[in-house]
Design goal:
Largest sheet: 5 strands, mixed
CATH class of the largest domain: Alpha Beta
CATH superfamily of the largest domain: Histidine kinase-like ATPase, C-terminal domain
Distance between the termini: 54 Å
CATH topology of the largest domain: Heat Shock Protein 90
Strand order of the largest sheet: 2-4-5-7-6
């Protein structure tokens, strides 16, 4: 199957194993969240129906959330099919502010559970680009989720995430996601976006790597900054259609 010399075969095996590990981690990371949310909402729906009298309104709301999360999981699988088939993914005109709104809404339950205040400064609604809406939403959510998780290590009164979208600046939109967490050490700055690298126990270390991949596929870029106050700020720049007018 592998062919070539022993050293070449070993290298190919290692590259293949690394690629498969990255792929499995990607799927696990992306699908686990909507599946966990579906299970939680299914339990909630059952409790509302078993109440005396049954709370039909709350049960209906829980079932609607199950449908929403099932669609999210389906979108992830669809993205993976495109990746594995090596076909060019379909692109559409995307309103960036809508994508950011959706990403924050999806991250909101985890933020509330962690008692993190997510503050959103909405930007220019005319910022648009030609891209993959689902992938962009997931990439932005990874940044917000990462910020929320970072804040969990801080006293509750200090847990804040700030999301800002502004522009256009020289034909680019700028998205900033800043958290009041403990920050990161300067020596890991270049590794933050590496697949399977993480500073958080129990995490897969794929979220930031996947975000960078999506932003770069859109012709954009992402960087991490550590402020003097130890705050972490992720800055994303993306080219927009018509300068964002």
């Amino acid at each position: 199957m592998w062919g070539g010399s022993g050293d070449d075969e070993q290298l190919k095996r290692e590259e293949y194993a690394a690629a498969m590990a990255e792929l499995v981690a990607h799927i696990a990371h992306e699908v686990n969240q909507p599946l966990a949310a579906m299970a939680a909402n299914a339990n909630a729906c059952t409790r509302w129906l078993q109440a005396q009298p049954p709370n039909i309104e709350e049960a209906h709301a829980a079932s609607a959330r199950i449908v929403r999360d099932a669609r999210r999981a389906s979108e992830v699988i669809g993205e993976m099919r495109v990746f594995l088939s090596r076909t060019a993914p379909a692109r559409e005109t995307v309103a960036l502010q809508e994508v950011v709104d959706e990403a924050i809404a999806q991250a909101a339950p985890a933020a509330r559970l962690a008692h993190v205040d997510v503050r959103h400064e909405r930007g220019n609604s005319g910022l648009r680009l030609l891209g993959r809406r689902n992938a962009l939403r997931q990439a932005v959510r990874h940044l917000v989720d990462n910020a929320v998780e970072a804040c969990a290590a801080m006293p509750e009164a200090q847990r804040e995430v700030h999301v800002r979208l502004h522009g256009p600046h020289r034909g680019e939109a700028v998205l900033e996601v800043e958290d009041t967490g403990p920050g990161f050490q300067p020596d890991v700055t270049q590794r933050l976006f590496e697949p399977l690298f993480t500073t958080k126990p129990g995490r897969l270390g794929m979220g930031l790597a996947l975000s960078r991949s999506v932003f770069e596929q859109q012709g954009g870029r992402v960087m991490a900054q550590r402020g003097d106050d130890a705050r972490t700020r992720f800055i994303v720049t993306l080219p927009v259609e018509g300068g964002g007018a």
